[in-house]
């Protein structure tokens, strides 16, 4: 350890080479972000049209809470510790009508179902989060839950059992206990306490009952086990000869509770069809049931590299001056020799004849052995090998190689990391389903949202339930705003535009400019210029240009017609000449026959 090396007067060296690889993979996620698309899940035949209102509303929700940054933080936590978490909720403190919040959660504070084995913990039955709050914040939070916070003691408010603490221990932070303040202060706002938030689902029995008032028999009612006997009793009073038709079914009921030293609140989960916590998982350890990221595989090569480098430096330090082997009577003053021998500007006095008789001998230097150098190179090279992140992905390959080969090597590196990005893609689909629920149940109240209109300008529309109701499939697609996707799309457009240059309209030009990678203010200026209606002078100039083009076309047509007439005349003269030549040749042939 570092302390042991310091005690031995050895310099501990810790080069963090793993951070470069973590930042590189996290940068790939930032450069290739995705967007969520909502497709209606209907039974009507015909083309399925994307609900653009939901897509724009999802982007608006993410922009208001910086969701892209929070998702990137969660993905980076996955690379480091194997799991990244985020929570989605509605906050009514900042806005009276509710604001959507999506924030990254510390993985250390999260606990999950140990039997969950699917990617992103899709099969988990419960989640727990241990929050550390100040005493004032905890009391305010408990009051918002409906608990009587002023009647709850500190021991009952703090879930010290969740962090392995005794409930009778002092709740003040370590800094306060070090100051040894007296107990004359009954309330300290800096006191820390813990609150546990848990979410789980349980099976609930209910009944599908055919609506007796519906003569067509198409409408069904959902009735709980407590409501069914009352419904049967009432139906027997109305139609005793007709039995009530129903079928027994089960469904999941999602619940949420907050725990301190005692139960603070228990209620249905804010999302009735799922959890509000979402997780990104890395690679699964099959026997332990845990998840790990890139740091777990880079840890041993990194530690070995630092250890070999520390050991090599220690060998160089201890064998730099070499040392000597001397007889006891070789020096006049042994203590002076110990002090001055290693100094290059000092003179060490020895006995007469000591040097001549060889009573002082230099120690054989050890130096740095070749195996140490080879082991160091192996450990450093193993860091990218165990992750699959090659030097081409990092941009550190100092080799003159063709661009096609470098692109293939980058693609191979991305293929190795595809499992991590597959978890990220599934996580974003889960986030899309969660946002859809909040849009349909909390945000579709007529509030104004900002969306990107078809002409490339932002406009405000009302988010109403009629536009968002229904069931939808969530699709994750490459975001057109990501730098990589912009560059790729613009490159393909540049190849296609020459073939379709005659069909380019202002709308097409706006789309091309949006994918050009230009700064937003430049793109906005171009959009305004293209969308701006022409002035009277421009219209007149366009009319003059149009008329000039028509006149030029008519002149060219006249020239072509004249050329055609000249060609026809020349063709007629040639035919006459051919006829005359034929007549002459016929006459000559007849004269020859008569002469014979």
Short description:
This protein is of the alpha+beta class and 596 residues long.
What does the secondary structure layout of this molecule look like, with pairings?
Layout: H1 2-7, H2 18-31, E1 34-40, H3 52-64, H4 67-81, E2 83-91, E3 99-105, E4 110-112, E5 126-134, H5 135-144, H6 154-157, H7 174-179, E6 192-210, E7 220-224, H8 228-238, E8 246-259, E9 263-268, E10 277-281, E11 283-285, E12 290-292, H9 294-318, E13 324-326, H10 334-340, E14 360-362, H11 370-387, H12 391-394, H13 403-416, H14 418-443, E15 447-452, E16 458-463, H15 465-468, E17 472-478, H16 483-496, H17 506-514, H18 520-531, H19 536-595
Antiparallel strand pairs: 1-17, 2-3, 2-10, 4-5, 5-6, 6-7, 6-8, 8-9, 11-12, 13-14, 15-16
Helix pairs in contact: 2-4, 3-14, 9-11, 17-18
Low-confidence stretches: 177-185
Average residue-wise pLDDT: 78
Share of helix, binned: 40-55%
The secondary-structure class comes to alpha+beta
What is the helix tally? Answer: 19
Which of globular, elongated, flat, extended, rod-shaped describes the shape? Answer: flat
Report on this model:
- By secondary structure, the chain is an alpha+beta fold.
- It contains 19 helices and 17 strands.
- The protein has helices at residues 2-7, 18-31, 52-64, 67-81, 135-144, 154-157, 174-179, 228-238, 294-318, 334-340, 370-387, 391-394, 403-416, 418-443, 465-468, 483-496, 506-514, 520-531, 536-595; strands at 34-40, 83-91, 99-105, 110-112, 126-134, 192-210, 220-224, 246-259, 263-268, 277-281, 283-285, 290-292, 324-326, 360-362, 447-452, 458-463, 472-478.
- The strands form six sheets. Strands 4, 5, 6, 7, 8 and 9 form a six-stranded antiparallel sheet that branches. Strands 3-2-10 form a three-stranded antiparallel sheet.
- The protein is flat and about 150 Å long.
- It starts with a helix and ends with a helix.
- The relative contact order is 0.11.
